[in-house]
Write a sequence for this structure.
């Protein structure tokens, strides 16, 4: 099994050459310390940690899994040590405010870190990932006292966090939440209920775990408007803020899952557990979802990371393994057969992985700039700025989460395919990447939910198509600038055509939905995928434009990297982008072809 | 977890209404006993066995897996009993010649049986499935003595069989096979070497296992022309044909796999094992591949069965689980939320599964008629007939195997998706179907190999496009007949357009390949998938034509079944078939976008 290598060259290409992060950071308060040298040093250190500490635990963690004994969860061998190194390195607080022990760097730096960690070892990265969710929630909605008590140890990584939403009867439809919170005379609450699918719900990595829990107050309105948010620590902090009394929240069982086996997925039983209200009563869902865009982009990383990992390993295998002769004649006549890499169809699979991994990474970096502005708006209390960038990010979020995780699964499966039968054997790790990645299209809102969020909410309800108009205007302006270069012209033209089509599709769906509400759902998945392919095309053109410039004006540097960017852009436009057209056709087809059948007539097993 | 229900209604629809199997069987010698009543009774019995015996072992078999102890493999609890019932029921010999203990029914009956067994419990069905491969090989190439000794107990199911091709250094590229066979004075051979990925390589279901092994004679020519075929029994038969001395072939280890865990995948060590030549020296590969089309269609079943199973379970869940409200208004106002089935996007997933399962089944039944003729040709020694139908089947085989297993994986993944997060949890079985199905695009020739076989061999090399011309002529003739019915007309027109396009694409690739051999490989995958979508469209139109006829002239029978066929045809043409166009675009793109990059420039990890 090859090891993970952090793709630092590609990351720096995106940061410095494509998206001008140095210029971007110069406009941010949090960017003051994010000078190119510091960013370089951080990426290098993080890459080293991922390569040397996290990557070697990837397969063994899956093999061993987590164990539950007497209500206490043990993580696989090596996880505690790795987490200690992670916490000691100050990585958890990389993008957290300095006043609570963080390093105060821009949010985007945290995403870059998450991408590398998630690529090297996704299941491990979920523990600190969930803590981030808790940190964000407390930072935005907690009292100063709550921040001092919980946010500081979370930021230092001494404590970990969770998000407790799902219950047996509901995941997506949180209006059905039943967990009860009864007010006590001391101002605290007693929480009773069962939460399921709680990632990092219990573990041995930290001395305490801070659960952020959705529950209902007595007499709360039904549905989503009667849900409040609570902090429920595993151990109640004592007056010094140290770990005190054990609280009434216990892991009842660990889910047996397809993958991410080193990540503890818990059933948590709240049995009169002491909790503390966070944010206003009955507005828990809003509070929980404040940072949903960043959480979902955190999950979108799972589309990119595993694609990168699977690609790295498949590429190595394709260079080593010999089978048959290339159709265009022997490439390695002295060998018993040619390497897989000489077969065009194997290259099709590898380039698909590459286009997804690098195109997806570029989409993340594009979105991360918006996240920086949004977070700065929140941090500075500039609601208008926060809202503006949250809206921009909100349009991209379902595209990134929905589209990239679907393509991540495809890339991981292609990695197995390159290995042939060996891909199906556990020791090579390729099938593990498939199993681990498969969760990505399910949690943090399934692909179907992302699709509805994009088309139903962001595009139709909130902006009447305006979100598409605004985004495609950017794309079209960029494409127009590159019509004159003969290498870029065909792609720029194609992209211009697609921006027009995207708007037209939006209008046609909007009109159809006025007469038939089911159209919104029936078109949503194809609209999401179409949007993803066009967005990725834009992002590949941006990379290609830089590559052309460097090749023309570069000088000494090796040209292979830039040639590869052009070749991958060409591959993407010619072999993957055509899929957008089949989605365009499907999304315009009548909802009747989905809705006309009675449920009883769907199956005939008699 | 819901149980498997044999889709007998759909099977009978295909047999009796769409493909006129009664008429077809009337033309076959082996069809004499396959009267509609007998066929009905057999399907009913087989369905019952699959529902009551095999289906309940599906999840437990995965949980427990196979065990290796002292070189002996133990199958999961219940497997031995189930296999005993299977053998006692005479199922193994259903389509085998009566002279060796079989029931002499047409080959297609065996495929129907395999489909039901493979749907209820794919890993179990692999044990008898591998035996079939050994039976076919011995039947076609064995001496009369070998047939009496080995074929009879295999046909009765007292013994099982395997096919030993793959070695550590080669799977696809069998010219690299190294296992040695040294002739002995008694006319036998001593085999030495290592075979890997041997399904059913060892187990406790039968008293003996008959390995069919590829190996090299001393001084055999290099490559594929120096490979011979041997029978190597686990226990050497004594003079009565009973189990005698233990032979030198031992299971060295069991592979740990992504799925099909109840199927023993063995490393087999041949250590001077006694073997018997079967067929002519150095023609082993030809002998092994005589029945490859049927073996590959056996694997194509894995595209259909798991799609059916995953669909059945997902449909049940979608009717039970309540989440959110339908966009077109409350459907179940008295309930806390509407069932999933009322959401258009959930229906998109379910109908995709249904279209794949039923469309795939119909493709199998279409091909199975050709298999009947081919087998009859072989059995009667009518080489011309055998060859004619082998060619027809040979064109369809890579389409069925390659396309249907790819779509089977998609269907299984959609089943997980319908379940949301619950799909990822092992107890529901949905993720197991994904893991079990994933092997289907890898073994018996990967999708890439099927694609090359179709485009490179069957279409270009062997027939210069003639195979496509012949097949599309059938399709076009059928479509033309149905232009007058206004329900069928749009689909018939679309299909006519596609038959023209398919031929045009073939010609364009043929011309391009004359200048650039890589085109064959670079276009192959998209050509395969395109061919699959068009073939499935044809097969849906055939079903729709019957449905229209029955709705117009049927009378008393429930119309729901036929309405569902029309609705699924409509869904297929409007939502899935558009994908063919993106494959058409991709396949015509230049091979340059795959081949231009140096292998070293593919990755930049520094």
């Amino acid at each position: 099994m090859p090891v993970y290598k952090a793709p630092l060259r590609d990351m720096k290409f995106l940061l410095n050459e494509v998206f001008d992060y140095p210029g971007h950071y110069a406009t941010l308060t949090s960017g003051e310390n994010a000078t190119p040298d510091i960013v370089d040093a951080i990426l290098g250190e993080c890459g080293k940690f991922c390569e040397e500490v996290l990557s070697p635990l990837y397969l063994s963690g899956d093999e061993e899994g987590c164990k539950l004994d007497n209500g206490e969860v043990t993580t696989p061998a090596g996880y505690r040590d790795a987490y200690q190194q992670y916490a000691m390195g100050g990585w958890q607080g990389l993008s957290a405010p300095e006043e609570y022990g963080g390093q105060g760097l821009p949010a985007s730096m945290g995403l870059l870190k998450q991408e590398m960690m998630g690529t090297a070892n996704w299941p491990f990265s979920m523990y600190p990932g969930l803590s981030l969710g808790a940190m964000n929630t407390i930072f935005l909605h907690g009292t100063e006292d709550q921040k001092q008590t919980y946010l500081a140890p979370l930021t230092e990584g001494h404590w970990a966090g969770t998000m407790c939403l799902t219950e047996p009867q509901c995941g997506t439809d949180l209006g059905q939440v039943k967990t009860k919170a009864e007010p006590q005379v001391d101002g605290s609450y007693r929480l009773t209920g069962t939460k399921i699918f709680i990632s990092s719900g219990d573990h041995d990595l930290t001395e305490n775990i801070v659960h952020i829990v959705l529950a209902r107050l007595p007499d709360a309105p039904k549905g989503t408007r009667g849900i409040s948010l609570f902090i429920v620590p595993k151990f109640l902090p004592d007056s010094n803020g140290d770990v005190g009394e054990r609280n009434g929240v216990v892991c009842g069982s660990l889910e047996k899952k397809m993958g991410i086996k080193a990540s503890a997925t818990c059933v948590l039983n709240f049995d009169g557990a002491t909790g503390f209200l966070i944010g206003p009563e009955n507005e828990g869902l809003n509070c929980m979802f404040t940072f949903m865009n960043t959480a979902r982009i955190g999950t979108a990383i799972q589309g990119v990371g595993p694609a990168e990992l699977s690609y790295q390993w498949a590429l190595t295998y394709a260079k080593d393994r010999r089978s048959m002769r290339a159709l265009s004649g022997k490439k390695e006549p002295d060998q018993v057969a040619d390497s897989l890499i000489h077969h065009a169809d194997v290259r099709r699979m590898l380039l698909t992985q590459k286009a997804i991994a690098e195109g997806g990474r570029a989409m993340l970096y594009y979105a991360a700039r918006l996240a920086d502005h949004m977070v700065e708006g929140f941090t500075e209390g500039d609601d208008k700025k926060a809202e503006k960038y949250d809206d921009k990010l909100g349009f991209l979020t379902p595209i990134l989460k929905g589209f990239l995780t679907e393509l991540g699964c495809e890339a991981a499966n292609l990695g197995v395919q390159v290995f042939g039968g060996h891909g199906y054997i556990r020791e090579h790790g390729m099938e593990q990447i498939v199993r681990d990645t498969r969760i990505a299209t399910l949690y943090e809102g399934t692909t179907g939910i992302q699709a509805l969020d994009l088309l139903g909410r962001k595009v139709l309800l909130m902006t009447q198509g305006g979100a598409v108009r605004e985004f495609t205007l950017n794309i079209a302006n960029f494409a127009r600038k590159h019509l004159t270069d003969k290498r870029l012209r065909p792609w720029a033209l194609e992209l211009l055509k697609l921006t027009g089509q995207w708007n037209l599709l939006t209008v046609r769906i909007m009109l159809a939905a006025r007469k038939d509400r089911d159209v919104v759902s029936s078109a949503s998945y194809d609209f999401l995928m179409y949007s993803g392919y066009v967005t990725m095309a834009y992002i590949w053109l941006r990379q290609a434009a830089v590559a052309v410039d460097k090749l023309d004006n570069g000088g000494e540097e090796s040209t292979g990297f830039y040639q590869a960017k052009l070749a991958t852009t060409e591959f993407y436009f010619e072999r993957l982008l055509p899929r957008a057209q089949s989605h365009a056709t499907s999304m315009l087809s009548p909802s009747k072809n989905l809705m006309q059948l009675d449920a009883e007539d769907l199956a005939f097993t008699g």
Summary: The CA atoms of residues 230 and 277 of chain B lie 4 Å apart. Chain B touches chain A through 112 residues (CB under 8 Å). Chain B is about 55% helix and 10% strand.
